[in-house]
Amino acid sequence: MNNLLVLPLLIPAFTAVILIFLKERVDLQRIISAVSVFLNILVSGIIVYQVSTKGIQTLYMGGWLPPYGIVFVADMFAALLVLVGAIVGAACLFFSFASIGEERERFYYYPFFHFLLTGVFGSFLTGDLFNLFVCFEVLLVASYALIVLGGSKGQLRETLKYVLVNVISSSLFVATLAYLYAATGTLNMAHLSMRVAEAGQGGVMNVIAVLLLIVFSIKAGLLLFFWLPDSYSAPPVAVRALFGALLTKVGLYAITRTFTLIFIQEPGLTHSLIAWMAGATMILGAIGALAYNDLGRIFNYNIIISVGFIAFGISVATQDSLNGVVFYLMHDMVAKALLFFLGGMIISASGTDRLKEMGGLIRRYPWTGWMFFVLTLALVGVPPLSGFAGKVMMVRSGFGQNHVALALIALASSFIVLYSLIKVFQQVFWGGEKREEQVKPLHYKAMMAPAAVLFAIVILMGVGAETVNGYVSQAGAVLADPALYINAVMKE
């Protein structure tokens, strides 16, 4: 057993509780928060090292072996996502210092921020579907507060929609878990894989699998993304970055884990359904990215395109495509946070989010402009940047496994990403400035610092893709061979 596995949850959870009692001490809240996120990065890095050298790590709470009790499991897939999530969370925290405003800081912004991280990391590390539900609820309750914090009319409207959608999906989730427990007698993921294989995945099991896919698709924004574009436009930029980088990835993680470990007997149903949903998501996301002329919605529809792209890799389900899923998930967490950071800086400098009212910022903010351009190339998948390796693996597998139509849609969606973001780059940074007032964002250098860190990671992940792929391959091997996960967890 490895007791370190609980620390990525406990550190932000205890931090959040402490910060509740420091409502008026903003400076102290910042210091404690910064120490917390750096400590979590350190712990997450140690877990990745332990998994790479010693194999899958487990923690049985209270000493209760599976299928009884609570179990946390860190295979390389979960460990990498926790590490990247901790880095992105730290970047979002420091961007918050410069942009969120003292009024929100005094109304429990940082406690909710850390509770959200608790839910995200718990979702990645849990080995039990009921605990996954619990962690979902922790991050969702925190996200409700972060969306509405500020109390503007738009925030209140979008919060109602966001809460309603997630309450319905959570109700469906817990009802599905009840049916699954009645059918199998367990909710431990490794044990479920064994029980489903023994019973055969047909009839009731297929219905349960489809219901779980619907639940996780709502969380991820896979096809059922009607709530996402407006809801993610409501909160401040730091919160948008946190949501865009992490929340949809939790849903995608749940889909990946469920349909590479538990429901793997009938890929003709489950994986074909994921494939169709992925294709539709990429197409509809591309239409949305082309249709709008404000930064928020363009960026939000680019989130949707990437969700569809990752789901495409999940549906192909070869080790190569699953390696690509892991690599691209890591890339997308970093790149989407950076995209929203740069978008927030652009809006602050322009005083508007409408493309038609922007222009000429390259003269005043050359670093922001060229970072945005390079990030666009990374999101498209241009080598040697971070988006290239994952896309190549997924598209290559798609063509190799006769998913030609889906692979072509994936490639076409990359060109739509290129067009939509190059349009932003051209209209925002070139031409003449269209506003007489030249607004200098407050704390511009402080906002640039976390953006520069993520920008460096985007480049390093691409240039060092061979090194990163050594870890990614370990993650993909476990996803492609569920027996490795099952044997590591079911040790009795």
UniProtKB/TrEMBL annotation:
Regions crossing the membrane: 6-22, 31-49, 69-95, 107-124, 130-150, 162-183, 203-229, 241-264, 270-292, 299-319, 325-347, 367-385, 405-425, 446-465
Domain of life of the source: Bacteria
Compartment list: Cell membrane; Membrane
Chief localisation class: membrane
Keywords: Antiport, Cell membrane, Membrane, Transmembrane, Transmembrane helix, Transport
One Pfam family linked to the record: Proton_antipo_M
InterPro entries in UniProt: CPA3_Na-H_Antiporter_D, NADH_UbQ_OxRdtase, ND/Mrp_TM
Membrane topology summary: Multi-pass membrane protein
Entry similarity comment: Belongs to the CPA3 antiporters (TC 2.A.63) subunit D family.
Gene Ontology BP term (one): ATP synthesis coupled electron transport
Gene Ontology CC terms, in alphabetical order: plasma membrane
Ranges where the NADH:quinone oxidoreductase/Mrp antiporter transmembrane domain occurs: 127-416
Protein name as it appears in the record: Na+/H+ antiporter subunit D
Gene Ontology MF term list: antiporter activity; NADH dehydrogenase (ubiquinone) activity
UniProt key word Transmembrane helix: yes
